[in-house]
Amino acid sequence: MNGLFFIINPAAGHGKAKKVWNKVKKELTRKKVSYRSFYTEYHGHAEILARQVATLQNYHLKTIIGVGGDGTINEIVNGLSTFSNIQIGFINAGSGNDFSRGFQLPTHPVKEIRDILLKLKKPLQKFYLGNFRLEGKKNGHYFIKSIQIGLYAEVKEALKSNVNNKLMARLHLEYMGFIISLVKVLSYYQPFTLFVKVDGELSTYQNVWFISILNIANYHGRMKIASNAKPTDGNLDVTIVSNISRWKLFKLIALNNSSKKMKAESIETFACKSITIHSESPLLVQADGEMIGESPVLVSIQKDRVALIK
Ligand SMILES: Nc1ncnc2c1ncn2[C@@H]1O[C@H](COP(=O)(O)OP(=O)(O)OP(=O)(O)O)[C@@H](O)[C@H]1O
């Protein structure tokens, strides 16, 4: 077996990543697996490290394993976007668990590394990736999980800027932190008019709260969105939530409380290959949980772009 390369984000999971990495290291030593490891030092560093390691290894490298959260795996995937034969493993050490949940990966570090070691010799499994490009920018970037636009992106940003966020995470009160941010943003956020071009066809939506574009199924609080989203089907799964009162929206996201009538009137879901999003004023856009800028944005699906150990 070739030596393995690990990229660890020590800031992921509010510092949990270091403990996770220590458990993984013990298991690697126990199994006498040779490896090299690199710690990220700043935002975006995992992308640079992944690209540098792949380039220096002169295309002989077979595997890079990320230890972190969804942001870390996103950066590694972007760093390896021109090395589609390098397989990427993931050990979850983030605050959320969306990527592991979406790909049905184990969530305990020792189980995860054992699972990766077992699967290393299997044939490469390639998955679709989403691609996005903000209007006016020359280059696009990839996402593996989701693009969020509107209220939900605002809630995530409010959560990150909450000074008590770290403390709540330590006390395992992340969900309460999310609810506090949701209530805060709902108190001032105004719905918007959305202009979309879906596979070439134009539509307008009024009173929109948020739009989610997914490659894998995901959760907004307790609300599961795009249950059918799969990184193997070549589609983007879009959910648009509009024309709903603040209170009903709160119940929908926080408690997954919805009626058939509400679903029919307020939640539209569809699959597509590409979607362009415009609005009257710019909206926050997140990719894989990281803020990337403001709308307008063009999102599309790209075939066989990433080899993941799954
Ligand atoms: N050494 C570092 N110090 C501070 N931030 C870092 C460092 N290395 C990477 N980062 C940044 O940390 C951010 C969070 O990383 P990541 O998303 O992996 O963890 P998380 O937010 O805890 O997990 P999740 O997104 O799954 O909830 C990313 O924007 C990443 O670029």
Describe the overall structure:
The chain is of the alpha+beta class and 310 residues long. 33% of the residues lie in helices and 34% in strands. It is built from 10 helices and 17 strands. The two termini are 18 Å apart. Bound molecules: adenosine-5'-triphosphate. Residues 9-13, 40-45, 68-72, 75, 94-96, 289-290 line the site of adenosine-5'-triphosphate (ATP). InterPro entries: ATP-NAD_kinase_N, Diacylglycerol/lipid_kinase, Diacylglycerol_kinase_cat_dom, Lipid_Phosphate_FormReg, NAD/diacylglycerol_kinase_sf, YegS/DAGK_C. Belongs to the diacylglycerol/lipid kinase family.
Query: Which CATH architecture of the largest domain would you pick?
Result: Sandwich
Count of the domains = 2
The hetero compounds bound to this protein are: adenosine-5'-triphosphate
Alpha carbon gap, first and last residue:
18 Å
What is the radius of gyration?
20 Å
Sheet with most strands? 15 strands, mixed
> How many DSSP H or I helices?
10
Helix and strand content put the structural class at alpha+beta
**Approximately how much helix is present in the residues?**
25-40%
- Overall mean pLDDT stands at 92
What sequence of helices (H) and strands (E) makes up the elements? Answer: EHEHEHEHHEEEHHHEEEEEHHEEEEE
- Name of the CATH first level of the largest domain: Mainly Beta
Strand fraction equals 25-35%
GO molecular function, one term: ATP binding
Keywords: ATP-binding, Kinase, Lipid biosynthesis, Lipid metabolism, Nucleotide-binding, Phospholipid biosynthesis, Phospholipid metabolism, Transferase
GO biological process, one term: phospholipid biosynthetic process
Organism: Metabacillus sediminilitoris
